[in-house]
Amino acid sequence: MTQRLAMLRILVFGYAAVWTIVRAPHLLDTIDLAARRFAGIGPLWWLNEPAPALVIIAAVALTPIACGAAALGWRYRLSSWTAVVGFLFLTTYRNSWGQIFHTENLVALHMGVLALFPMAAACWSMADWSVDGTDAPADHEARSRAVVKALSVLTVGTYFVAGVAKLRISGFGWIDGDVLRHQIAFDNARKELLGDPTAPFGALMLRNSWMLAPAAIAAIAVELAAPLALIGRRAAWIWAGMAVLFHFVILAVMAIVFPYHLIGIALAPLLPIERLGTTVAAWHCRFRRRSTRLRPTG
């Protein structure tokens, strides 16, 4: 589990670095928005007016650097917390302008847990790219297992909470597909009016209303069944496949993208992703040995 934890560090902080770079233009656009639209939420509840432009520019510039450093394990205690604070600030600040997104909530939670445990940088970091990792204390593997389990619980917990929320808000009316029909219709109509891309299969599902009830039942089944992924490896693989399919369907009928989930990083704590790191580390060690043999000795 030490290796899986290290691979999660690379994937999660690496994703956050790329996300911040890709979203930088949009984040910087908030500088020019009307101040009356701003209302601090969440961790920024105390902020009554927009932050100075220099603060936004600095956060957009420094956060991906800190995320990249944390992914590489460089000065991990400092870089990981800098990355967490920067990412949480930028995502919360963006959500304080009227539309609240929740696609990055799990990213921030995973980053926070990884930052709490410096052992995440014990191997496959700038200090050590060996296949087996560093010589760790006897309890290191058990502690790493506990951290990976915590990350897994966060993943399945977000899905389970989403399923419970559907039932609490819509009751069993969700099951017949009527609520889903209104969500698909409203979301695609709004995108059409704003000139945004609409979902390729949204209209098809609305025209074939018999598909709505099975889709609604399948959606809530995936979310409520999420805790079953903690039972064992086979259950984790099955549920992870269903979750990825679930997000592809959302993309197809509502044009809503959950990139962290679609590419599988959100589900990575449940899966043996350390095999990828072992392969990369083995290539790295082989390359270093070859370079050493080819280096002139005289």
Number of strands: 0
Profile the largest sheet: none
CA(first)-CA(last) distance: 43 Å
Number of helices: 12
Characterize the overall form.
Answer: globular
Q: What does it look like?
A:
The protein has 298 residues and is mainly α. It contains twelve helices and no strands. α1 packs antiparallel against α3 (53-72) and α1 (2-22) crosses α12 (274-294). The chain starts with a helix and ends with a helix. The mean pLDDT is 88.
SSE layout and pairings?
Elements lengths: L1 H21 L1 H6 L23 H20 L3 H20 L9 H12 L23 H31 L7 H17 L7 H6 L4 H13 L8 H22 L4 H4 L11 H21 L4
Helix pairs in contact: 1-3, 1-5, 1-12, 3-4, 4-5, 5-6, 6-9, 9-10
Key phrases:
298 residues; mainly alpha
Quick take:
By secondary structure, this protein is mostly helical. The chain is 65% helix and 0% strand.
